[in-house]
Design brief:
12 strands; five-stranded mixed sheet; 4 domains; Nucleotidyltransferase, domain 5; about 45% helix
Length: about 425
């Protein structure tokens, strides 16, 4: 049996107080052991209810920071205010009484300072950390401000101050992806990322060739640029014109998705031409071309040719292969474009560069939209063939662009280009 005396009770109470003090400080991300909590209460100002933590900041000061004299005496307290990281959106303020000291030698006064409180700043480092953490989740500026208990301008200022976009990378990636995106207003900007790590390399305000060339040539030496092995681009012809200048040893590759997208649009152009020429809108042919257009874009090897299924739009049971055959029976140009589309689709998905090269060389014009697509491929034949030879694609950078669009939509657009680029840098960390 343990007997508790008066000293045991006092010691236990002191431990409880110390424990509570440490727990409260840890909860609001304060690590300074010189801070001691006095009270916690609610306060309502300007229609906003906030939690207030009242504390003292005091520690022994051995010498004057001005004259280094040891003739110091305590000289009351100075009241300071600071904002702490919010919890569940509830604002938390710190009301701290800072110990003041007076030097008898030089007459100067000085006060206690804390690593958790920046001098002449009302926002603590914990608030900045919380703001950056929320910004990485692609939240709108107003939402970040509401969750942290600070103003919109303060949130923007913290983000712009904490984000440091590098002048250049320490090492230029060996495989790059080039693309563009709509930034502020109708302005188009350039974006580049690492094809292997999917990390952002750079975002440039413009997409002009001169701006892109100047960036890489001014920041990276020729030796560094010669180490780049491949660059994946879309069908934007301007990229292919200067890539060899920037990266002499790099292989340019057209993104496979954009190749399939272009021939798919050419096939759709032919389908719509036939569709608009049909006067009877209740005919089976019209219904197939209008409602079952996705079957024409499907790999012919994946079409169901044996089991009839109910196809909406036609409103009858029919196999997918029969529906495609019905659509192609209407026009020879459409049928020829479809066969070209399927051949290109097979070669690209199968990474068959030789077969793709033969198809481009032996293609016979049929006076259709497919002719234009094939001509574009022939102008960039090496880059198109490299799409089959190399495993890289623009998938990583398209993923970044999708997050950028989400960020713009959530934030209802951005007016400041620098702030927008800083937010983009955060979502990719």
């Amino acid at each position: 049996m343990v007997r508790l005396n008066h000293h045991n009770i006092i010691e236990s109470e002191e431990n409880i107080v110390s424990l509570n003090n440490d727990s409260i400080l840890k909860l609001v991300k304060l690590t300074d052991t010189n801070l001691h909590v006095l009270d916690i209460y609610s306060e309502r100002k300007r229609g906003v209810t906030s939690q207030v933590i009242e504390a003292t900041l005091s520690y022994p000061l051995t010498h004057c920071p001005h004259c280094h004299s040891k003739a110091l005496i305590r000289n009351g307290y100075r009241l300071a205010h600071a904002k702490l990281p919010s919890i569940n959106g509830d604002p938390i303020r710190l009301l701290v009484h800072k110990q003041r000291y007076l030097c008898h030698t030089c007459g100067h006064t000085c006060g206690a300072r804390s690593s958790n409180l920046k001098f002449n700043h009302t926002l603590t480092p914990g608030v900045a950390q919380q703001t950056i953490k929320l910004a990485k989740q692609s939240l709108a500026g107003t939402t970040i401000a509401a969750l942290t208990g600070i103003s919109n301008t303060s949130a923007a200022r913290i983000i712009n101050a904490e984000v440091h976009r590098p002048y250049r990378l320490k090492k230029l990636p060996e495989n790059l992806c080039f693309d563009e995106f709509r930034s502020t207003g109708k302005h188009m900007s350039f974006i580049c990322c690492d094809a292997d790590s999917h990390r952002l390399v750079v975002t440039l305000p413009g997409r002009l060739s001169e701006e892109i060339i100047d960036y890489f040539e001014s920041r990276y030496s020729l030796t560094e640029r010669q180490a780049v092995k491949s660059v994946v681009v879309d069908l934007n012809a301007q990229y292919c014109h200067f890539i060899h200048r920037l990266f002499p040893n790099a292989k340019t590759s057209i993104d496979r998705f954009h190749i399939i997208q272009l021939i798919g649009r050419a096939l759709d152009t032919e389908r719509l031409r036939v569709l608009h020429g049909i006067e009877d809108h209740k005919s089976r042919l019209y219904k197939v071309l209008k409602s079952q257009w996705k079957l024409l874009h499907k790999d012919q090897n994946e079409l169901n040719a044996s089991r009839p299924v109910f196809l909406r739009g036609i409103n009858e049971f029919i196999t997918q292969q029969n529906a495609v055959d019905l659509a192609l029976s209407a026009d020879s140009r459409l049928a020829s474009a479809y066969q070209t589309y399927q051949a290109l689709l097979t070669d690209i998905r199968g990474h068959q560069a030789k077969a793709l090269g033969r198809l481009l060389n032996t293609y016979q014009p049929i006076h259709s939209a497919m002719d234009t697509a094939i001509t574009s491929f022939k102008k960039n034949d090496e880059a198109v063939l490299n799409s089959c030879r190399l495993s890289y694609s623009n998938g990583p950078i398209e993923g970044i662009n999708r997050k950028i669009k989400t960020l713009k939509r959530i934030g209802y657009g951005f007016r400041n280009l620098t702030s927008f680029f800083n937010r983009i840098a955060l979502i990719r960390e």
